[in-house]
Amino acid sequence: MDMQDSPGVGTISALDVAHSYFDGWNRRDASAVLETMAPAGTYSDPQTGGPLSGEPFREYMNRLFAGFPDVSFEVASEGLLAPHLVAAQWIMRGTNTGSMMGLPPTGKPVVLHGADFIRVADGRIASVDGYFDSRAIPEQLGLQVLVQPKAIGPFTFGRAVRSWGGSTVKPGAFSITALRARDAADEAAVGERSRQIAAELVSVKGFIGLVNAVVGDRMLTISAWEHPDDPRQLMKGGLHAEAMKGFFGTELGGGGYTAVFVPDRINAMWVRCPGCQKMNDYAARQGACSCGAALPQPMAWW
């Protein structure tokens, strides 16, 4: 990193503080960064959801360092906008070799351009306002970037993921787990457990598939099973049983419930013929349309 001080009263002091600040980031040392901050100093960027200081800021930095253990910041240009206000354009580089947002590492490199406006008072940082494109890193990692409101009127929006073990058996039961997270950290912890459990379920007897969804403050898992008794296996051991201990202990969630539903009826699986475009009951037609064309394989039930 090459930052050149400019001449003038107060210039060296403000820039030196900024140098120390970026040096802490480049050493991936959250404590060193915090040492440059005033006791009430704040940091904010498009991902923080508001100003951070103290331990929340430390946790924010450590999540970045965990996801990108080799992260570095090159200051491309810098200068004083006022005697105690430093403007610095930077280029962040790193490789995603650690977990980020509970997701497995992709191993992909990223490059992010941004700028910080650093206000210094009495030799310490009073505030850092960072600006960058929050979509850039997810897109470089091959992640979907979805822009949507949190809620409009009676509608609450969220995100979902499906896990499927390859079974095409018609479900005989659905289990539902609904949890409410206490805060963002709790949501991340529940999400990480859910991903681990989903991977384990693929090998559990009777498991067909599941859908995980986060909508507002509600975290849902809807799993399809061959028989209503199949979900009972999850209470006897494995990651799901461990997660239940955390729920009834102090580790996970602010509340929730579980349930098992048995379908009253599941109607026919319909498939459109690629030849005549007629819709067919796949089971009743035994895989062949009345026009004689072979029907494509139907979608999985769950």
Structural notes for this entry:
This protein has three domains: about 10-140, Nuclear Transport Factor 2, Chain: A (Roll), CATH 3.10.450; about 155-260, 2-Layer Sandwich (Alpha-Beta Plaits); about 265-300, no CATH class. It has about 300 residues and is an alpha+beta fold. About 25% of the residues lie in helices and about 35% in strands. The chain has helices at about 10-25, 30-35, 55-65, 135-140, 185-200, 240-250, 280-285; strands spanning about 35-45, 70-80, 85-95, 110-120, 125-130, 150, 155, 160-165, 175-180, 205-215, 220-225, 255-260, 270, 280. It is elongated and about 80 Å long.
Topology, element by element:
Layout: H1 11-26, H2 30-35, E1 37-44, H3 54-67, E2 72-82, E3 85-95, E4 109-121, E5 124-132, H4 136-140, E6 151-152, E7 155-156, E8 158-164, E9 173-180, H5 184-201, E10 207-215, E11 218-225, H6 238-248, E12 255-261, E13 270-272, E14 279-281, H7 282-285
Parallel strand pairs: 1-5
Antiparallel strand pairs: 2-3, 3-4, 4-5, 6-7, 8-10, 9-11, 9-12, 10-11, 13-14
Helix pairs in contact: 5-6
